[in-house]
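Re: weekly structure request thread

Next one in the queue (144 aa):
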Amino acid sequence: MRAVPLLAVVVAAGVIGLAGCGGDDDESSVTAFCDKVEELESQPDPLENVSEGDVDSVRDAFADAEDQFNEVADVAPEEIRGDIEQVQNVLGDISSSLEDAENPEDLAGIVDEFQNAGQELEETSQRLEEYTNENCDTGGDTTG
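Done, posted below.
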């Protein structure tokens, strides 16, 4: 029952943490990155309608989330490349693990395996969010 919530935290840390990122390395890179994140934010959350214990729906939703993140990562400014790559590595590792999952117990094992990665991605997400607030106008409510 806790498999989907942890996977959602990992996805949220990686994808939602990017809300409107940009940078000052290269104007076109910043613009492309912000545009891609804005496009991503307008799409439904891939894990929103996942059924607890439904391995196929978790696997499919997570693959969709990974694909969305990779689209954003493709245009990420160099300044945040390290954080982006960290998220990509964790998402890739989880996706690989999900390929072999056959039942809810397997999902629980994956959750246990990636518990620390989820915590690390929360820290990465905070850095990406701070970068976002400083470099990209998303129309969100940010102070600073």
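Confidence is low (pLDDT under 50) at residues 1-6, 15-25, 140-144. Residues 3-47+54-135 form a domain with the Four Helix Bundle (Hemerythrin (Met), subunit A) fold (CATH 1.20.120).
Next request, please.
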